[in-house]
Design brief:
mainly alpha; Sodium/glucose cotransporter; 19 helices; 2 strands; globular
Length: 534
């Protein structure tokens, strides 16, 4: 049995053990959806970091920096700075005003049915985008590592999907939390060790390291070229490169505060003070991690080389191949197992946020609002919807194939979250005049604008030469109508404009009256959901 397979199986066994333990403690809605709100600040901080440091972070960013140098570093900067938005704007009000989902905050002062219906659609859309990226990364990674065992990309994606569904269906939020904590600790340990090995390769001389980065050699169009990876322009070129970079930055910085699987983590802690402390814990870990991604990316470019990475799995395999080059096959297997753990933890978080939104927002409060339900029905619906969400993500990931860069796919999910979710969350908490029409308009315009612009952007629309075949071909074979890869610079303002215009064109006195209640509750915690009993 190969070393990677042994390490994978050890991690799977540990996480299934956690799931079994959590399943005994996940009876009832509060336990299943929010771990009974008994997660401590440091535990939730590590879990938030574990939820956030995804395959896009570990595999995708290292790959983008390894191939595009300085331009790829915006992914690291954007995802780190994003937590200031979470800390200063949404963490405390969300914990105080909500119960299980983002829509709880909106429904507090607005008409519940239309708001919850649209919020559920938005949550499912963002979660699916994000989940597809993780599944693509998982399939490519596992298929490459276990190719000697005859496991294909398709089989790997299906296997990861089944594990993800098992965690969520049986263990709920408690199992998801502890899988994320273990994964975060493993990921930080592996990344620190790999960063030290990279610097050790250059005899701990930053001068030698940066000199190598400034003279990266690889083949392009059959010619050997030497490029300076410390200067911009390798990915974002004129005439629209600067705008695309700004658009990406906006999507990453504002998208985090609208990501459903991050927002639901604040409902697992006892109070707003703990929510704030968990964000600080998360920022320390996330900040350290994203600084180290530069060592991983530039290390892969200088030590492994673009040419070798291209022929051995593509950009997403940059970090594992760097581990192999520096410390052999056992460390390669260890780093790959960490990447596998990363993917499992994140997809579990995504699945529980999507299934919670469907069960709590759509099933309970839209379809069956005011109807008496059986005890445990909401949890049962969440478990069934976890199967459905998982199946959809598996199918799309198989169709996309293993070549799509996961960091880029996730950046698109951030654009949708920033365009649809963030405007309505911010305006609901801070604008007295905001009403139901504004919320529905903001969610609708943000969703349609971001997805529509993605469909007509160079990401999905281009004329490929005949030599480009299979999954590498663009979905729409025509010249792109929208010139930017990331729609954030246009779709985020459109989301806010839709919400503001919708509000100004209608009047809803009830929502204005309830604003004072929301203001007091979101800032003081009076009336907020409390921790459940052991």
């Amino acid at each position: 049995m190969s070393t990677p397979l042994v390490m994978f199986l050890i991690f799977i066994a540990i996480t299934l053990g956690i799931t079994y333990w959590a399943s005994k403690r996940s009876a009832g809605s509060a336990a299943y959806f929010a771990a009974s709100r008994r997660v401590t600040g440091w535990q939730n901080g590590i879990a938030v970091a574990g939820d956030y440091m995804s395959a896009a972070s570990f595999l995708g960013i290292a790959g983008i920096i390894a191939f595009q140098g300085y331009d790829g570093f915006m992914f690291s900067v954007g995802w780190l700075v994003a937590y200031l938005t979470v800390l200063l704007v949404v963490a405390e009000p969300l914990r105080n005003a909500g119960r299980y989902t983002m829509a709880d905050v909106l429904a507090y002062r607005l008409k519940p049915r239309p708001v919850r219906a649209m919020a559920s659609v938005s949550t499912l859309t963002v979660s699916t985008f994000y989940m597809i990226a993780q599944m693509v990364g998982a399939g490519a990674l596992v298929a490459l590592l276990l190719k000697d065992s005859g496991i294909s990309y398709r089989a790997a994606v299906i296997g990861v999907g089944i594990l993800m569904i098992v965690y969520v269906v049986f263990g709920g939020m408690l199992a998801t939390t502890w899988v994320q904590i273990i994964k975060a600790i493993l990921l930080m340990g592996g990344t620190i060790l790999l960063s030290i090995l990279v610097l050790g390769h250059f005899h701990f001389s930053f001068g030698a390291f940066f000199d190598a980065i400034a003279h990266v050699t690889y083949h392009e169009k059959g010619q050997e070229v030497v490029k300076d990876f410390l200067t911009p322009g390798l990915r974002y070129k004129p005439p629209y490169g600067a705008l695309d970079l700004i658009s990406l930055g906006l999507a990453l910085i504002f998208g985090t505060a609208g990501l459903p699987h991050i927002l639901v983590r604040f409902y697992t802690v006892p109070d707003a003070k703990t929510a704030r402390s968990s964000v600080v814990w998360a920022m320390v870990l996330i900040g350290s991690f994203y600084i180290m991604t530069t060592f991983l990316g530039f290390g892969a470019a200088t030590i492994v080389g673009r040419d070798y990475i291209t022929t051995h799995g593509g950009t997403n395999m940059s970090a594992p191949l760097l581990a192999q080059a520096l410390a052999g096959n056992i460390f390669f297997a260890f780093i790959s197992a960490i990447a596998f753990a990363t993917i499992l933890a994140v997809v579990a978080g995504l699945t529980i946020s999507a299934s919670t939104s469907f069960a709590h927002d759509f099933w309970t409060n839209v379809i069956h609002r005011g109807v008496e339900r059986k005890p445990g029905e909401e949890v049962m619906v969440a478990r069934i919807s976890a199967f459905v969400v998982g199946a959809v993500a598996i199918t799309i990931a198989i169709v996309l194939g293993p070549t799509a860069n996961v960091a880029f796919l996730v950046a698109l999910a951030f654009a949708v979250a920033a365009s649809a979710n963030l405007p309505v969350i911010v305006l609901s908490i801070f604008w007295r005049r905001f009403n139901t029409t504004g919320a529905v308009a903001g969610l609708t315009v943000g969703l349609l604008a971001s997805i529509g612009l993605i469909l007509i952007s160079p990401s999905l629309m281009a004329v490929d030469p005949p030599t480009v075949t299979g999954a590498a071909r663009h979905l729409i074979q025509a010249k792109a109508i929208f010139p930017l890869e990331n729609p954030g610079i246009l779709s985020i303002p459109l989301g806010f404009v839709g919400a503001i215009l919708g509000t100004l064109l209608s009047h809803e006195p009830t929502s204005e009256h309830k604003f004072n209640e929301l203001l007091v509750r979101s800032n003081t915690g009076l009336g907020a959901e409390r921790a459940g009993a052991h």
